[in-house]
């Protein structure tokens, strides 16, 4: 697993687990939004990447065979990067948008 792939997998985990203990105390709760996610919601967010990742193994191989590995890898890298930049916006907008963003990131990781 490349360092970028590893970061995409663990970035939400770090944000959820250490948000309240470190960042919230650093900024004193003034500038950061508060999320009321239950343990189930947090588990779904953390697992959403792997839902997309596991569900598209065959699709990634097929697309690489038909269109070529460079093209598929380039577009998947672009899509995953854009979604990583949009993750904070999705988080603030909607829980479901965040889950969808993470699932599509998982789909894009398979294509690499």
What would you note in describing this structure?
The chain has five helices and no strands. By secondary structure, it is an all-alpha fold. Helix 4 (69-93) packs antiparallel against helix 5. The longest helix is centred in the N-terminal third of the chain and has 25 residues, at 3-27. The radius of gyration is 16 Å and the shape is elongated. It is found in: Membrane. Keywords: Membrane, Transmembrane, Transmembrane helix. It comes from Elysia marginata.
Write out key terms for the chains shown.
single chain, 112 residues, mainly alpha, transmembrane transporter activity, transmembrane, membrane, transmembrane helix, MFS
Radius of gyration over C-alpha positions, nearest whole angstrom: 16 Å
The biggest beta sheet reads: none
Mean pLDDT: 79
Number of domain units: 1
Give the overall shape: elongated
Structural class: mainly alpha
Helices and strands, in order, run as HHHHH
As a percent range, the share of helical residues equals: over 70%
Through-space gap between termini: 10 Å
Low-pLDDT runs: none
Number of helices: 5
| E-strand count | 0
β-strand amount: under 5%
Protein name: Glycerol-3-phosphate transporter
Pfam families: MFS_1 (PF07690)
GO biological process, one term: monoatomic anion transport
InterPro entries: MFS (IPR011701), MFS_dom (IPR020846), MFS_Na/Anion_cotransporter (IPR050382), MFS_trans_sf (IPR036259), Nucleotide_channel_N (IPR027378)
């Amino acid at each position: 697993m490349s360092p970028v792939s590893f970061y995409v997998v663990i970035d939400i985990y770090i944000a959820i687990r250490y948000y309240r203990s470190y960042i919230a105390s650093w900024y004193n709760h003034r500038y950061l939004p508060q999320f009321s996610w239950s343990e189930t919601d947090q588990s779904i967010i953390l697992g959403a990447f792997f839902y997309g990742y596991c569900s598209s193994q065959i699709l990634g191989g097929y697309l690489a065979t038909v269109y070529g590995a460079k093209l598929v890898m380039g577009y998947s890298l672009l899509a995953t990067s854009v979604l990583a930049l949009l993750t904070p916006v999705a988080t603030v907008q909607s829980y479901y948008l965040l889950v969808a963003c993470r699932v599509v990131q998982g789909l894009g990781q398979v294509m690499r």
